[in-house]
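Note to self: keep these together.
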Amino acid sequence: MFDWKDRMLKRGVRNIFKHNICANRSDRVLILTDTYKERVGELLFWFGSEFTPNIYHLTYRPTGRHGLEPPEEVWKAAFGLEFLQEIKEKGLLDRILKKKVSEGDELEVKEILLETTSPEKLPTAIIAVNQHSISHTLFRKLCTEFLSIRFASMPLFEPFMFYTSLQANWNLVARRSKETASLLSDAEEVRVTCPNGTDITFSVKGREGLADTGKLCSPGDFGNLPAGEAFIAPVEGTANGRFVTKYAPDRKLKEPVTLEVENGCVKRVTGEEEFSDFLNHLIHEEPNAGNIAEFGVGTNEKAERFDNILEAEKILGTCHIAIGDNSSFGGKVRANIHIDLLIEKPTVVLRAEDREVKLMKEGELLLGH
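Structure:
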C-alpha cells in the first residue's frame, strides 16, 4: 500500500507531527483508526514515534456513517476504564451513542471525567483517521472544548493527500482561513449562487465563523487534516432555496443532485437516483438529518481532488453546505449524520445591515479586493 522509502511520503507524514500538531517528546498521542484506515494508522504510528515515545494506536469497528459517536473502546482508550464503567453504569453511554444526550447528561459526563481521569494520563493530541467522521460528536467536543486535547480529524483520508493538500503553504492557508472566518462572523446573511442552479440564502447572525488552518499546536485546537477552510453554522430555520452538487462525499455523480430547502431543512432531493434516494431516505427517516448545518469555504491552494470530500471541501475556489449535526461548532441541532456537499465555482455574497461584501465570484476568493 505504501512505499515507506518514498521521500515525499515520509515528508508528508512527518509534517503532520512537526508542523500540523507540533508534537514534542512530552506529548501523549493517540491515533484512532477504523478498520478501513488501519494501515494509515500504522504509518502514522511508525513515523510519529520519532517525535514522542508516548504514542498509541487503536483500531475500532467502523461507525458506518459520518457524525455517529465512536464505539465504547474509543472512549476507553481516550478517557480510561474507570470513566467508561461509570458512564455505562449510569446509562449515559447508551444515550450518548444514540445521540439522545441532554444538557444535564453532558454536564454529568463532564463531572465524571473530572472525577475519574487525571491530566497526566489523558492524551494531549488525538489523530482520528477513519472512513466515517467523528468530528461532529460529543466525544470530539469533550476532547477539545473540555479537556483541551488537540484533535486532528482525517475522515475519508487517502494516501494521495500526502502529495497534494498536505503539501500546502500552511501560513497562507491560515491567513486565508482566518480572514474568511472573520468576514463570516461579521455577516448577518449569506447568499450562494451558481450557474448550475444553486441559489440559497440563510442567516448567520450571531454565529461565529471558524478557521480550519492546519495549525493544531495549542491546547484544544481542532481541525481537519488536510486542512484549509472557513466555516460557520447557519441559524436554524433560516435557509431557503436550493443547492446543486455534482459530487457525493466519495465519488463524482452520474448526474447532478439538487436539494430543495425550506425553512432551514432539506425537503426534497432530485437527480442521480442512487444518491438522491439515499439522501431522501435520510431526511425522512433520521431526525434532523435534513438540517442545513454548515456553510464552508475552501482555502487550500494545493487541494485538487473533487471526488473525496475531505480534500474537495478544502479546494480554493469552492464552497460546501452540510446537512445534519452542527452541535459541536456553534449550532443547536444534534443528528446521527453530517454530510458535506460540494459546490463548484460559486458566487458568495455576505450581507450585514446596510453593507454587502462579495466574498467569492464564480469560484474566485476575493480577499483583499
